[in-house]
């Protein structure tokens, strides 16, 4: 098995605080944080508290189906945010990782023409990412074990087989 990057809950606390510090020191003051569900929810929540931004939005995007297994293209899942709600805002897009960058590009491009400015913040960015994020905690080319997705679910959906 290939070497992996291991992010613990404790290290995530450090990472999110350092990521927020990058944003603050850059002078970027987002009106809202747009999280990419699911991994970006944790990042957006932590950044929201650290940057004192209460306006958090969510975009549900499906791309990964397993370890190194993904759809051909990322797909937005409903409900898709209303661009009117984003109009004229300064937006910080938050996600856990920019791997290929396809998901971030989809979300950034979705709101780019509607907002005053959009920037991206991720815990990890990989070299192959098509999006160069403005705020990155660490760069790696390894598969990342996130504390929220490493263990299997505690329940299964009816008829769905879960890997142990």
From TrEMBL:
Molecular function (Gene Ontology), one example: glycosyltransferase activity
Top-level lineage group: Bacteria
InterPro entries listed in its UniProt record: PRTase-like (IPR029057), PRTase_dom (IPR000836)
Domain Phosphoribosyltransferase: 9-150
Keywords: Glycosyltransferase, Transferase
Pfam families for this protein: Pribosyltran
Entry annotated with the keyword Repeat: no
Tagged with keyword Oxidoreductase: no
Protein's recorded name: Phosphoribosyltransferase
Organism: Prauserella cavernicola
